[in-house]
Amino acid sequence: MKYSRRMDGLPPYLFAEIERKVSEKKKQGVDVISLGIGDPDMPTPAHIVEEMQRQVADPANHQYPNNKGLDEFRQAVASFYRKRFGVDLDPETEVFPLLGAKEGIAHICFNFLDEGAVCLSADPGYPVYTSGPILAGGTPVPLPLEPELGFQPDLEAIDPEALKRARMLFVNYPNNPTGAVIEDDFFRRLAEFGHRHDIAIIHDNAYSEITFDGYVAPSFMQTPEAKETGIEFYSLSKTYNMTGWRVGAAVGNSSIIAALWCLKTNMDSGMFQALQRAAAAALNGSQQCVRDMCDLYRRRRDLVVETLGAIGINVTAPKGTIYIWVPVPEGYTSASFADMVLEKCAVVVPPGSGYGPSGEGFVRISLTAPDERIKEALGRIKENL
Ligand SMILES: *Cc1c(COP(=O)(O)O)cnc(C)c1O
């Protein structure tokens, strides 16, 4: 069989080797603790599950959904954006359902990229910012996030040749994997940059609700010019512990939304209506469950930051996300430290280099394991350093 050149162009799956080693260890009976995956360990809040149970039982939801999404879903997203961010969205033209943000990230590349066209992709970043453009036939160009600049890209330092060919740009704040948040006018500069260079700005907003210490994350759409130049992907996955449900939304520029809709009518048949209604209930309902989750993650964050400090690894406590971005000790690379931790401590931490070249020198610790498991994992690391 012959596979497409695009498939061959995908970067090697860095975590495949880790997964192989983990399953080997488990087979030997070793108690492996994973601080690897960003998948909330707590269940979806009961009121959302109950709404889903009701909706699944309703035959009105059993047929093909309308591809554009239910009014009820689009209105719930718009009303959430108004309440939470003070942003006005037209539910008819500026909101569109996604089967998770990941799906939107991968598919939107087909809207913008021809052969040779460039996507500027946050580095380190969510791996689909790189694989999406490759699958669409375009060229991802890393947009380094510098620790000195608070893990924001230097928009003035982009290679002019890449800039000329660039059609789109992916960023994400609060940031996976670095935990960085926006506290300055970066979004305004970003919108202005997109406008000036005619580049679609795609802001991946997976973590705006997971924040700590009084920090409130902005939406890119709060920036006055954002709607002219870009869209934002909102995801319910992390906010409501709904990673398995596959639900998110694209919001913003109506022309981009229309293009994505057109593309997706050719690729999928929309989102299960019961799910759209349960998602609307999540967005319209009490947000107390989200505050409780933030308390839990903040406690785990403090535990990790304090314990690392006690063994001489100093990290600043992030104001958002479910990750700690940890510089590796002297003498290690990302991969060699991750390897040592797996071999000697049976703890999985992904090497930062798996998120792009600029991730070298870091590993990512995820806060989505039970407190006791996090404590146990850190204890093992402490013993072996
Ligand atoms: C988890 C995550 C996603 C995936 O969101 P889904 O809605 O579950 O597809 C997208 N982007 C980032 C940065 C994430 O961390």
What features would you describe in this structure?
Helix content is 41%, strand content 15%. It is of the alpha/beta class and 385 residues long. The protein folds into 2 domains: 5-43 and 288-384, Aspartate Aminotransferase, domain 1, CATH 3.90.1150.10; 46-284, Type I PLP-dependent aspartate aminotransferase-like (Major domain) (Aspartate Aminotransferase, domain 2, 3-Layer(aba) Sandwich). Strands 2-9-8-7-6-3-4-5 form an 8-stranded mixed beta sheet, with helices on both faces. It has a two-stranded parallel ribbon with strand order 1-11. Strands 10-12 form a two-stranded antiparallel sheet. α4 (71-85) packs parallel to α11 (273-284), α5 packs across α6 and α5 packs across α10 (254-265). The longest helix has 23 residues, at 288-310. 48% of the residues are buried.
In a nutshell, what does this entry contain?
With 385 residues, the chain is α/β, with parallel strands linked by helices. The protein folds into two domains: 5-43 and 288-384, Aspartate Aminotransferase, domain 1 (Alpha-Beta Complex); 46-284, 3-Layer(aba) Sandwich (Aspartate Aminotransferase, domain 2). It has 14 helices and twelve strands.
